[in-house]
Amino acid sequence: AQSVTQLGSHVSVSEGALVLLRCNYSSSVPPYLFWYVQYPNQGLQLLLKYTTGATLVKGINGFEAEFKKSETSFHLTKPSAHMSDAAEYFCAVTRSRGSTLGRLYFGRGTQLTVWP
Amino acid sequence: SQTIHQWPATLVQPVGSPLSLECTVEGTSNPNLYWYRQAAGRGLQLLFYSVGIGQISSEVPQNLSASRPQDRQFILSSKKLLLSDSGFYLCAWQSRTGGHTEAFFGQGTRLTVV
């Protein structure tokens, strides 16, 4: 079965500081991994994804994430936080093959607050 | 390009009233379709998913049902709403080609049951 754990339901950083949002996954087959961002009262927008190939993936708005198979992690980082980064972030996993192919399993989300 | 439309954006309904939320996708064919609910502090809960017309899988037993009468239309319904049905409902689509990767979300419907 697939599952996602996001450590920390709330993360606060100062503007200009490093952003680190943690995500660990469980998957019985090689996973596809995603980070989504949600602004208030809006749908989810894809930030970045890992399917195959390079384990360090870059996304929109300066975010990147690294797939570490040995640690079953896919942490999201940004070197310098901006006020506009304040939002809720969701990590998700899906199977790359087998039954339930394509179904996304989401973490519970991390609310990022950026202080001026 | 592909787009997903979800309506209405907000809805206030009394307890016991029926519900119908509609989601349509344009620019793609034969997508996977999903209904999620987001309640405060509880993340995203998958309610229903569909891999084709008339094919609906339910993730959790509850007061809601879903239908897919056309390839790119997904409807979420209830005969009698409960207070606990309040939440933010999100529809999403996913391509069934190219490895079934990311899902694309609508803008959501904020449902308040009073």
Any idea what the radius of gyration of chain A is? 14 Å
Give the H and E element order of chain A.
EEEEEEEEEEE
Largest sheet of chain B: 7 strands, mixed
General shape of chain B: globular
Main sheet properties of chain A:
6 strands, mixed
| Multimeric status of the protein | heterodimer
Question: Overall pLDDT of chain B, averaged?
Answer: 91
Gyration radius of chain B (Cα, Å) is 14 Å
Report helical residue fraction of chain A.
under 10%
Give the rounded overall mean pLDDT of chain A: 91
The number of helical elements of chain A comes to 0
Number of strands of chain A: 11
Q: Topology as H/E string of chain B?
A: EEEEEEEEEEE
Helix-strand category of chain A: mainly beta
Terminal CA distance of chain B: 38 Å
Distance between the termini of chain A: 41 Å
Q: SS-based structural class of chain B?
A: mainly beta
Query: Could you tell me the number of beta strands of chain B?
Result: 11
Shape of chain A: globular
Greatest interface and its participating residue counts: A-B, 24 and 26 residues
Describe the structure in your own words.
The complex is a heterodimer of chains A (116) and B (114). Chain A has strands spanning 3-7, 10-14, 19-26, 31-38, 44-50, 56-58, 64-68, 73-78, 87-95, 105-106, 110-115. With 116 residues, chain A is an all-beta fold. In chain A, the strands form two sheets. In chain A, strands 2, 4, 5, 9, 10 and 11 form a six-stranded mixed beta sheet that branches. A five-stranded antiparallel beta sheet of chain A has the order 1-3-8-7-6, with no helix packed on it. The mean pLDDT of chain A is 91. Chain B has strands at residues 3-7, 10-13, 19-26, 32-38, 44-52, 55-58, 65-70, 73-78, 87-94, 103-105, 109-113. The chains are: A mainly beta (116), B mainly beta (114). At the A-B interface, β4, β5 and β10 of A face β4, β5, β9 and β10 of B.
